[in-house]
């Protein structure tokens, strides 16, 4: 039987993460000149809830840490400790640590030693009320990483300082522990002060204990009931007996090395990446990238759940209820279909049925939709930090945060938007003096806006900075060979050039904008989602970058075409234009390869009826109707027989019913019930290129 | 071995229950109705443990713990306070005053014996 708590843990993590996000938002929204009491209460309540819940769900480390935050906030909310800029920063760090705690707890890991140390410094700072405390040595605070063979617990226990004065019988505790199973103990005397400084009534003892037992942790907790103060007690389950014991564990058992020594040694160990860098085998950036990739994979595995508003589910349940009634009506009507009444009932029921199925479809799609706020919410903090780092005063405004987007989109938009916002602060914004000189307010404004417009979602990152320097872009484009010499690109073309791979007008990639993804990745992610990018920029006034996305991945704006007797669908996002051409416009090169010259550019012509083997019904007169498409930076002119129209189609996966077919991304059912295949433009271009290579 | 326990509670029912249970565990039991009486009773005695309620007339349990800890002969004697579930802060107050531990009310005789055995 699985752990009954497990099913609630996901919900716990989601809720705790939301609470942490809420704390951050509240902290960033605080006006230190006039702090709202309600905000302080909100902060306190959030910390309190995380603490309580994490204790309930078995994450004592999270509980212990949030308890510290809670106790810090208590006097603040009572008005006996002022909210200062320093405290605000400390609390923001605290929020980060909560997130980190949750992140590791979710994977069943202990908090890494580095963060553990950071946490201790933070706690000391929070308690010291301002005066910064130096970082404690990592070794002393590292969690007990040495787990042992056998079932049971590895325990780190630091006796409370007042243990003697409270009449606590430590010996008794150890005897009680030993009653639970086999107990081994290693006293740790490092915390003992020198003789002169020693108050004999203070307790300075600490132990690393190993208890082999089949008893639940509750029984162990019970022993420590009166002495556990959160931080001073860490209980970890031992690794299962089947796994190979770690070297440290064996040394501990056989050679009398104490857990504290092992911790210290482990802290000296360096991560693989760091060693490889020192050996000169790999560049630090490569390690960073690899780690990022690993992280991404981890995150992808995680984000497979979606939180749905109860209201949405209620509506679905109601709809299904209505459908059942309609079904009953239909059944009844079908019994008396030969009567006029029956016929009337039947058509009424069918009408109702039609409305309900449509609504059901809409609402089920709606489940995948989450508010764009989920991505936006991270930016106030980011802009705050960036502004601080760059010494720029930047204000972030957000509009349309309730606009809903497909969950997949949300995940794929995180990186591009992060990059765009970073870019806006880093490159788009001028310094305060330059702004004042230009007659603009010293504080720059970045507007993040989401809106639903005619079947598309628009997400804008708008700044009131210096605008794009098109002369420089032109020069750079020429230098990099992105613009053919002699051509005169339009303003729009120049604006979009910043998204070309290999284009970057900044000489030295800064720590800020250089991290993560480049502008070309922004474009690529947006394209994968079937969207496009628009850029508007006025020198001296600012830049707006707009991501235009389809409402959902499950529906596609398509151009339906006829090839032979078959109907195919092009994703509208990859269609540039379509035009008629005469046989003489198409030239043959290298045998039967064909190209067409379009405004000075040679574009390969792809005869779809050949490639897709739909020759039947193909108009062989030689006149061609070409659809110019572009994908992943490559263009091709696809020859089709007829343009049927533009329509939204529901994407069905081909793989679930048949198998993967190169050049086809899926299928859809047309209004007349026939199946049409959706073309994968980049796949087709590859296919054609492959065929050419084989023949050549 | 010293097997004498002082129980302090203004409710005689409660005192009787505790006394009865502890006597069953082969302890000698002394009783007091509040903090002031407890200090009088404890004077000059060698006690293994003191169990005290918190809310009592004349002198409450927390004050009693403070006063006992100030006396050399009770400086290290185990003291348990009886608290109610809703009163989590009382545990903290008890700890700060120097109490060894606590028993959450309501409790069963078994729980009482377990806790007593934990601290003696």
Explain the overall architecture:
- The complex is a heterodimer of chains A (about 700) and B (about 120).
- Chain A has about 700 residues and is α+β, with helices and mostly antiparallel strands.
- Chain A has 5 domains: about 5-130, HPT domain (Four Helix Bundle (Hemerythrin (Met), subunit A), Up-down Bundle), CATH 1.20.120; about 145-245, Alpha-Beta Plaits (2-Layer Sandwich); about 310-365; about 370-550, Heat Shock Protein 90, CATH 3.30.565.10; about 555-695, CheA-289, Domain 4 (OB fold (Dihydrolipoamide Acetyltransferase, E2P), Beta Barrel), CATH 2.40.50.
- Chain A has 23 helices and 22 strands.
- In chain A, the strands form 5 sheets. A 6-stranded mixed β-sheet of chain A has the order 14-18-19-17-16-15. A 5-stranded mixed β-sheet of chain A has the order 6-8-9-11-10.
- Chain A is globular and about 105 Å long.
- Mean pLDDT of chain A is about 80; it is low at about 130-150 and about 505-515.
- With about 120 residues, chain B is an alpha/beta fold.
- Chain B has a single domain (about 5-120), classed as Rossmann fold.
- In chain B, helix 1 packs across helix 5 and helix 2 (about 35-40) runs parallel beside helix 3 (about 60-70).
- The interface between A and B is medium-sized, with 13 and 15 residues.
At the first level of CATH, the class of the largest domain in chain A is Alpha Beta
Name the helicity range of chain A.
40-55%
Number of strands of chain B: 5
How far is it from the N-terminal to the C-terminal residue of chain A, by CA?
A: 63 Å
How many domains would you count in the coordinates of chain B?
Answer: 1
Question: Mind describing the biggest β-sheet of chain A?
Answer: 6 strands, mixed
Structural class designation of chain A:
alpha+beta
Strand order of the largest sheet of chain A: 14-18-19-17-16-15
- In CATH, the homologous superfamily of the largest domain in chain A goes by the name Histidine kinase-like ATPase, C-terminal domain
Uncertain regions of chain B: pLDDT < 50 for 5+ in a row?
A: none
Q: What Rg of chain B is obtained from the alpha carbons, in whole angstroms? A: 13 Å
Low-confidence stretches of chain A: 130-149, 507-517
Please indicate the percent range of residues of chain A in DSSP E strands (runs of 2 or more): 15-25%
Distance from N terminus to C terminus of chain B (CA atoms, Å) equals 11 Å
Number of strands of chain A: 22
The CATH topology annotation of the largest domain in chain A reads as: Heat Shock Protein 90
Mean pLDDT of chain A, as a whole number? 80
Give the ordered list of helices and strands of chain B.
EHEHEHEHEH
């Amino acid at each position: 039987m699985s752990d009954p708590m497990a099913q609630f843990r996901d919900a716990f993590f989601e809720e705790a993460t939301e609470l942490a996000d809420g704390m951050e938002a509240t902290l960033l929204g605080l006006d230190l000149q006039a702090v709202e009491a309600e905000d302080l209460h909100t902060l306190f309540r959030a910390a309190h809830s995380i603490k309580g819940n994490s204790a309930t769900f078995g994450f004592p480390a999270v509980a212990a840490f949030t308890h510290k935050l809670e106790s810090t906030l208590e006097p603040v909310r009572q008005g006996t400790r002022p909210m200062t800029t320093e405290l605000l920063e400390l609390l923001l760090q605290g929020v980060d640590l909560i997130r980190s705690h949750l992140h590791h707890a979710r994977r069943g890991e202990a908090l890494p030693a580095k963060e553990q140390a950071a946490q201790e410094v933070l706690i000391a700072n929070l308690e010291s009320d301002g005066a910064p405390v130096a970082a404690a040595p990592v070794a002393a605070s590292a969690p007990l990483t040495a787990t042992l063979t056998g079932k049971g617990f590895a325990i780190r226990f630091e006796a409370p300082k007042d243990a003697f004065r409270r009449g606590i019988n430590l010996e008794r505790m150890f005897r009680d522990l030993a009653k639970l199973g086999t107990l081994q103990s290693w006293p740790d005397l490092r915390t003992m002060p020198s003789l002169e400084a020693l108050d004999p009534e203070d307790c300075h003892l600490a132990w690393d204990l190993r208890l082999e037992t089949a008893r639940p942790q509750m029984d162990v907790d019970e022993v420590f009931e009166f002495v556990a103060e959160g931080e001073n007690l860490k209980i970890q389950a031992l690794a299962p007996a089947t796994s190979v014991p770690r070297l440290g564990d064996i040394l501990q058992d056989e050679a009398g090395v104490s857990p504290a020594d092992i911790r210290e040694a482990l802290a000296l160990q360096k991560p693989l990446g760091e060693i490889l860098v020192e050996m000169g085998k790999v560049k630090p950036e490569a390690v960073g990238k690899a780690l990022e990739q690993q992280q991404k994979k981890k995150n992808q595995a995680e984000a497979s759940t979606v939180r749905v508003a109860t209201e949405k589910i209620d509506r679905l349940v109601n709809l299904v209820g209505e459908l059942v009634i309609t079904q009953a009506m239909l059944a009844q009507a079908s019994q008396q279909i030969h009567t006029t009444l029956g016929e009337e009932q039947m058509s009424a029921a069918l009408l109702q049925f039609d409305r309900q199925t449509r609504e059901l479809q809409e609402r089920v799609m709606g489940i995948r939709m989450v508010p764009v706020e989920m991505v936006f919410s991270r930016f106030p903090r980011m802009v705050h930090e960036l502004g601080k780092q760059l010494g720029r005063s930047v204000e972030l405004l957000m509009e349309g945060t309730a606009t809903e987007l497909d969950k997949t989109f949300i995940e794929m938009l995180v990186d591009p938007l992060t990059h765009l916002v970073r870019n806006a602060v880093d490159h788009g914004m001028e310094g305060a003096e330059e702004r004042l000189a230009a007659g603009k307010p010293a504080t720059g404004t970045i507007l993040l806006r989401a809106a639903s417009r005619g079947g598309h979602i628009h997400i804008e990152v708008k700044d009131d900075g210096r605008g794009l320097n098109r002369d420089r872009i032109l020069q750079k484009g020429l230098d990099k060979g992105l613009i053919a010499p002699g051509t005169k690109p339009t303003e729009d073309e120049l604006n979009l050039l910043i998204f070309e791979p290999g284009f970057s007008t900044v000489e030295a990639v800064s720590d800020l904008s250089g991290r993560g993804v480049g502008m070309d990745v922004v474009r690529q992610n947006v394209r994968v989602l079937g969207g496009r990018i628009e850029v508007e920029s006025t020198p001296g006034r600012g830049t707006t970058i707009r991501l235009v996305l389809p409402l959902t991945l499950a529906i596609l704006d398509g151009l339906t075409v006829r090839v032979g007797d078959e109907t195919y669908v092009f994703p509208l996002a990859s269609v540039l234009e379509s035009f008629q051409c005469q046989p003489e416009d198409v030239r043959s090169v290298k045998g039967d390869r064909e190209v067409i010259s379009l405004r000075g550019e040679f574009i390969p012509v792809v005869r779809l009826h050949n490639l897709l083997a739909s020759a039947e019904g193909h108009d062989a007169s030689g006149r061609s109707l070409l659809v110019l498409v572009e994908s992943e930076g490559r263009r091709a002119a696809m020859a089709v027989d007829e343009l049927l129209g533009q329509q939204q189609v529901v994407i069905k996966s081909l793989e679930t019913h048949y198998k993967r077919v190169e050049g086809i991304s899926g299928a859809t059912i047309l209004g007349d019930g026939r199946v049409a295949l959706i073309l994968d433009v980049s796949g087709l271009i590859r296919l054609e290129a492959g065929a050419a290579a084989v023949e050549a | 071995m010293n097997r004498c326990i002082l129980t302090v509670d203004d409710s005689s029912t409660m005192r009787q229950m505790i006394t009865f249970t502890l006597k069953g565990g082969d302890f000698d039991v002394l009783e007091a109705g509040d903090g002031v009486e407890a200090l009088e009773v404890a004077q000059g005695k060698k006690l293994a443990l003191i169990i005290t309620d918190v809310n009592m007339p004349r002198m409450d349990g927390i004050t009693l713990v403070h006063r006992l800890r100030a006396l050399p002969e009770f400086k290290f004697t185990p003291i348990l306070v009886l608290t109610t579930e809703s009163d989590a802060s009382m545990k903290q107050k008890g700890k700060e005053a120097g109490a060894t531990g606590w028993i959450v009310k309501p409790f069963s005789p078994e729980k009482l014996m377990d806790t007593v055995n934990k601290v003696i």
